[in-house]
Amino acid sequence: MGKLKRRVRLVLTAMLLLAAAVPVAAQTAAQAPAPLDANTAAVTEQRLLQRHYLIEGRGTIADTRSYVIEQPLGRLWRMAQSVWLRWIGAAVIIATLAFFTVLYFTLGPMRIEAGRSGRMIVRFSAFERCLHWTIAISFTILAVTGLNITFGRELLLPLIGAEAFSRWSLLSKYAHDYSSFPFLLCVAVMFLLWARATLPTMVDVRWFMEGGGMVGHRHPPAEKFNGGQKLLFWVAMAGTAGVALSGVFLLFPFYWSNIIGMQIAHVAHALVGLAFVATVIAHIYIGAVGLEGGWAAMVSGEVDLNWAKQHHSLWVEREFGQGRGANPPAGATTTSP
Amino acid sequence: MARMKFLCDADRCIECNACVTACKNENEVPWGINRRRVVTINDGEPGERSVSMACMHCTDAPCAAVCPVNCFYTTQDGVVLHNKDLCIGCGYCFYACPFGAPQYPRVGNFGSRGKMDKCTFCAGGPEPAGSAAEYEKYGANRLAEGKLPICAEVCSTRALLAGDGEIVGQIYEERVARRGYGSGAWGWQTAYDEDVKADAGSRSGG
């Protein structure tokens, strides 16, 4: 009997304790938030796409790029690469070519007004010319192979067929990657060589205000490099910095950036490259066609004295001042000017 | 012909990676290349979801649009394939792909990525179906044998569905309706935007 009593007491105590505990439990339940339903609270694609440019998670393979599961920005880059760049590129290059064609047929090339004197003056050393032509050749390779990536599929592929175009494009890809190194190296040396001589001065302001001698028939004085050349030099330096910086990202993909960085680097590289090509078209026009006697400066390195006096009067004065006069014409006996 | 699509029901995916492994085995995919991978979003938090992702075989494929050598083509089944003989490994398809599907055998410094490799929906490549050359370059051509992609076939929870897009979409819709939740048909809006819109239009119209 005692056993039963003890058991009843135990049960009663337990019930009492429970009765006391229930309101407490109910209270805590009321204070706690509703139980979390992991399924309805789960991430949804829709919500993630509204909040993020790319959906990233955690994967189990070594390739961490694969942890980005969706990047809808790829569509924007696709538009940039396959539509905008083609239109912008075509517009920029055709406009530049058209401008200089019109210039050639209206204004025509600038003549040496006093005629050729037959006396030559050294303008660029063999080293300077070598540097220039290494840059010129590597730039041409870079420009042609770069334009091939943007325009080849539309322009060249239908002409030579898919297989030939693929072989050519593979070759151009390697050519583009590897010719960037001599290009960069030589531009760096050129920077060291000419940066001082191309710092803008008041003479250049006057040169620009008088239209560089293109408009009207006055010839503003200029040093070894006139305002236009200085501008070209610094535009080329900025362009090189631009293509080099973005190019390094493309050459070592995903080292310093994620997919968005790669897309930005690509578009920046293409835009700077296009501006560079347009600039160089202008440079080629002036150097080879637009200026009589200018071509010789970068080929033989010597220019006619009258050409030099017309375009770089201050430089000629300084050269004579230092006793480095012009070479006499063949057969001449005196060297004094 | 049926328009083939993948659909990963993330509410069913248990991140077992069987699809990844089966794919690698079936197609003899080289070391370092994953045509399919499983990624977990909000890992370790309540409501985390795992998604198995590969090429979604987009309707208007961005890879095909940006390819400088035009090596992509879409089959009659709506499967996006590419010709490795033409590929120059420029990496542009990876920049354009919303799903990170294109893979390359090498790292890619100095433009040496090698020929791009990606999911073929187990449909091989341009070579004759079932040929040794096709298998070596692109892996199995199960579609030509009347079979569906191995990744979906091995999926133990039937999270990964592959096949006729209409049927696959219908199965998912029924699942969502029955259980009352769904984290979405991952990638469908992006990959099949045109189809999804046309589908919605025809449904609201009918």
Which bin fits the share of residues in helices of chain A? Answer: 55-70%
Low-confidence parts of chain B lasting 5 or more residues at pLDDT below 50?
none
Q: Give the tally of structural domains of chain B.
A: 1
Mind telling me the CATH class of chain B? Alpha Beta
Radius of gyration of chain A, in Å, reads: 36 Å
- Strands in their spatial order, largest beta sheet of chain A: 1-2
Structure, described:
The complex is a heterodimer of chains A (337) and B (206). Chain A is mostly helical and 337 residues long. Chain A is built from 12 helices and 4 strands. Chain A has a two-stranded antiparallel ribbon with strand order 1-2. Chain B is of the alpha+beta class. Chain B has a single domain (4-205), classed as Alpha-Beta Plaits, CATH 3.30.70. In chain B, 50% of the residues are buried. The model of chain B has no long low-confidence stretch (mean pLDDT 92). The interface between A and B is large, with 60 and 58 residues.
Key descriptive features of the protein:
heterodimer, A: 337 residues, mainly alpha, Fumarate Reductase Cytochrome B subunit, two-stranded antiparallel sheet, 4 strands, 66% helix, 3% strand, B: 206 residues, alpha+beta, Alpha-Beta Plaits, 13% strand, globular
Chart the SSEs and their pairings.
The complex is a heterodimer of chains A (337) and B (206).
Chain A: H1 2-31, H2 45-51, E1 55-56, E2 68-70, H3 73-106, E3 120-122, H4 126-155, H5 157-160, H6 162-194, H7 202-209, H8 227-251, H9 259-290, H10 295-299, E4 302-304, H11 305-311, H12 313-321
Antiparallel strand pairs in A: 1-2, 3-4
Chain B: E1 4-8, H1 18-27, E2 37-41, E3 49-53, H2 62-66, E4 72-74, E5 80-82, H3 92-96, H4 132-138, H5 150-154, E6 160-164, H6 165-179, H7 188-191, H8 193-205
Antiparallel strand pairs in B: 1-6, 2-3, 4-5
